[in-house]
User: Which sequence fits this backbone?
């Protein structure tokens, strides 16, 4: 069998390589495999996760900087001193746990998709997680909008009623993003089979 000149040069190069060169190439391949895979953002999965994280960060900034509320009645003792309890505490905990908890989980998943090994994506877990997140963000957004569109807003929150409505709308938008993520994960799960 007659080899062409480029093929012979390749064989000669492979035969004359030293062990150090092979180690260097192996190390380079290892570094390349440990680098971030930014192609995740070009896929629907990565784009939706990034959007969910960004909207959650914006919502937390609005909540913190404007002192927004999820509404509800304050509980007070006989002297009028505010105590923990009442629907205010329930609504506040529901909203803040939704924001903080799902931000932590979404950010962790996004980082694992970027830096993790192939096979990190667990479809059933995504379905479950996105479904719960969708419901919680819809509930939190509805609580905020119900409060800021009602006739009675506590005086401390009246100045920020417009910001409160924006906050509620962003929570609902995040719920829609999680719905889209759920549908994408569902279609990926059952169309792949």
Assistant:
């Amino acid at each position: 069998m007659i080899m062409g000149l480029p093929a012979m040069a390749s064989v000669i190069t492979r035969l004359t390589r030293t062990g150090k060169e092979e180690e260097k190439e192996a190390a380079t391949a290892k570094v390349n495999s440990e680098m971030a895979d930014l192609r995740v953002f070009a896929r629907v999965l990565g784009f939706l996760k990034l959007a969910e994280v960004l909207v959650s960060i914006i919502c937390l900034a609005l909540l913190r900087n404007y002192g927004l509320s999820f509404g509800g009645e304050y509980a007070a003792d006989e002297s009028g001193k505010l105590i923990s309890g009442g629907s205010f505490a329930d609504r506040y905990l529901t909203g803040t746990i939704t924001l903080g908890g799902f931000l932590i989980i979404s950010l962790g998943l996004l980082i694992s998709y970027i830096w993790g090994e192939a096979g990190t994506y667990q479809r059933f877990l995504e379905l479950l997680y996105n479904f719960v997140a969708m419901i919680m963000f819809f509930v939190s957004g509805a609580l905020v909008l119900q409060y800021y569109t009602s006739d009675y807003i506590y005086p401390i929150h009246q100045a920020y009623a417009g910001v409160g409505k924006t906050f509620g709308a962003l929570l609902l938008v995040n719920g829609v993003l999680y719905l889209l993520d759920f549908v994408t994960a569902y279609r990926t799960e059952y169309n792949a089979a």
Remarks:
- The mean pLDDT is 80.
- Residues 56 and 142 are 16 Å apart (CA to CA).
